[in-house]
Specification:
InterPro entries: Gfo/Idh/MocA-like_OxRdtase_N, Gfo/Idh/MocA_Oxidoreductases, GFO_IDH_MocA-like_dom, NAD(P)-bd_dom_sf. 30% of the residues lie in helices and 29% in strands. The chain is built from 8 helices and 15 strands.
Amino acid sequence: MTPLRAGLVGLGAMGRNHARVLSALDGVELAGVVDPAGRPETAPYGVPLVGSLDELLALGIDYAVVACPTALHEEVGLRLAEAGAAALIEKPLADSVAAAERLTTAFESRGLVAGVGHIERYNPALQSLRARLEAGELGEVFQVVTRRQGPFPHRIADVGVVKDLATHDIDLTAWVTGQEYVSISAHTVARSGRPHEDMVAAVGRLADDSMVSHLVNWLSPLKERTTVVTGERGCCVADTLTADLTFYANGEIGTQWEALRTFVGVSQGDMIRYAIPKPEPLLTEHERFRDAVRAGTGAAGGVSGAPAAGIVSLREGLRTVQVSVAVLESAKLGGTVSLQDGEVLGVG
């Protein structure tokens, strides 16, 4: 089978990780790299470094990975769609809802394969967690709590912690539960002297009436990436730094004590740390996108399930941008933002 020809747009820290995986990916040839910021003098792995996106397209690429700054996603993505190339666009999809909508329309209207690089979808702990939730192992889900904190990454300059980090938690929460956000309330602070927020605390509600809580910041020397899902049968704790998944069972047992019979609570039960395979999430992401390009899987998809090949659709990426904008709107106006289909209905 003839290898797919891939291009890479952006050679920052994430772009170099993409280059590493693409250069060794079965069935794919990394044909060329362009960096809109013009920083590097050479590309890694002996790949040609070209001077413009048009030069990259002239190499005859089948698809491109877009890993340049978020503010450039729309310009680059629209040009790729116009040229008929598939695209894997790093998260967040765009820096505004309007830009994300234009990108989604551009690829969907042409029937082109396109996805968003929400890499946490491919973390083994979250993959296992989603499968267990779908199988009903927790019963009714009551709450999803995420904590994502660590030192400020100096490579990020164009967006704040909400659009850079919190979009991970927004996407993974909707994905593992299969539920849309219907409301969100948030508070942000900016303490590092940058023009964007560097800490956010948000609480929200999903369509099934379960509650969510996100604590995200760039101000902590402690690096933490934790997702806790609590349901009627216990809770699952996913540590995406180590790709570990642990289950804590609700050990409630029946009682013959009449005075306590009317109390329905929980107690500590068994604890299980699941043994799960741990492939690299970025490699899994690229393998699934490669397979989607070969199969011609389109850009559309729903929040309850990605397209058949397992990529994160642009429409899902659009919804994540919509929720992240609602988080910022809530923090700005000091109220709860109501959403429907990802669109802001009002602030209360």
